[in-house]
Fold these 2 entries.
Entry 1:
Amino acid sequence: MLRNTSTGYGRVAIAFHWTMAILIIGMLAFGLYMTTLPPTDPATFQLFQLHKSIGFIVLTLAILRLVWRLLNPSPKLPEGMHPLEKLAAHLGHIGLYALIFAMPITGWFMVSASPWGIPTVLFNIQPIPHLPVPEALGTKEQAEAFFKLLHEYGAYLLIALVVVHVAAAMKHHFIARDDTLKRMVSTKPARSES
Ligand code: HEM
């Protein structure tokens, strides 16, 4: 099994990171774009279906990644970092994980609450059941509006966290000149096979 050590990430962790980075940034742009299109156009409907399908792939990858991470703890942050910087990094990572789960889950609740009852069919192949929506949220319209708001503001928060995350990676690479970014690109600095 290939896995990370105390100084580097393994191939699986690197593959999860970049696959999910592409999917999530793509989904943020995709979501913002598709909501500007005429809602009754059949082409828009297909895009919404695709958005939902890719969202379920992200949710599946997020679960697998979290399990992988719990079994293979991440390497330590660089020694030279101030304790407050380390705390900010940990909080940022927790926030990213939370939103990576929250986006597909709020999207799933949103379509489950919709009074239109539009089915979700994964890539037009596998039907996905609707989630039970708590009655405390009011009518279907109210529940849908609630989850839509969470999905929309969750997206803005996720965009902000991704920007900070990328800026921090750049700071490590170009200003602190440590291995933080390099070790998420290659296993070479701390490769271990066991
Ligand atoms: C990584 C996962 C996801 C990301 C990053 C994401 C992102 C977004 C963004 C940025 C928007 C536009 C928000 C707005 O301006 O109103 C959006 C809209 C939407 N998303 Fe997602 N989404 C994800 C997963 C899902 C899933 C799994 C579903 C459903 C199963 C879903 C259903 C929808 C729907 C129906 C809309 C349109 C809301 C409207 O009617 O305005 N999303 N998404």
Entry 2:
Amino acid sequence: MTEIAIYGAGGFGREVNLIIQQLIKKGHPYHFLGFFDDEDKTLELGNSYLGNTEKLNNWKTPISIALGIGSGKIRKKIVERITNPQVDFSKVISPYAFFNDIISIGKGSIICAGANLTTNIVIGDFAVVNLNATIGHDTRLGDYSSVMPGANLAGNVNLKECAYVGSGASILNGIVMGENSVLGSGGVLIKNLEANRIAIGVPAKILEK
Ligand SMILES: CC(C)(COP(=O)(O)OP(=O)(O)OC[C@H]1O[C@@H](n2cnc3c(N)ncnc32)[C@H](O)[C@@H]1OP(=O)(O)O)[C@@H](O)C(=O)NCCC(=O)NCCS
């Protein structure tokens, strides 16, 4: 039996809990302990609130952590703060995702219901593929990258570390999104996007601030 908890008690954390509960119903050997969060959630969660990073870093027995946090940059910050050798990071794959053996998925990544991944896809550590996203052939999703609900990535797309694809956005074949870059919700990316840039619209253009 694996003792598992979620870091992040917000909306996405509760969605990750739903996946874990569905996996348990299907016989996956998880025992769900509750939620960690930076903020004290005792009032909302009672005994299911397990504490903050400090509490996790003092946890005395093996514990698996799933990250229930939508932003890759924040996932990265939290992972960097967790130093306890008792902690390992679960990859959590919805039983309702379309998924196969020729996809490699790194530790701590989350694949949500309805996500459809095809062939020769490599997903790094701590990535998120959210509800109903489609990921085409030969695509690379870097560490801490995020593909939000209903986004569509064609073949050979390459998301670098912490790249973020907003809900309902699309990316054409062979496009590279640089580190920390963001494609806004509903955007269609037809050219490579440099690191640390935000692009919006159809076709997507750089958002200058
Ligand atoms: C692109 C995005 C990151 C920009 O956020 P931001 O930096 O806070 O930008 P602002 O909200 O200040 O908007 C700046 C301008 O861009 C426009 N804009 C913002 N997001 C846009 C989008 N997705 N498509 C088109 N235009 C957009 C705004 O209307 C505003 O235009 P204006 O200056 O003419 O008024 C954000 O809007 C977005 O799309 N995030 C993804 C959300 C998502 O997918 N969430 C999934 C949750 S599960």
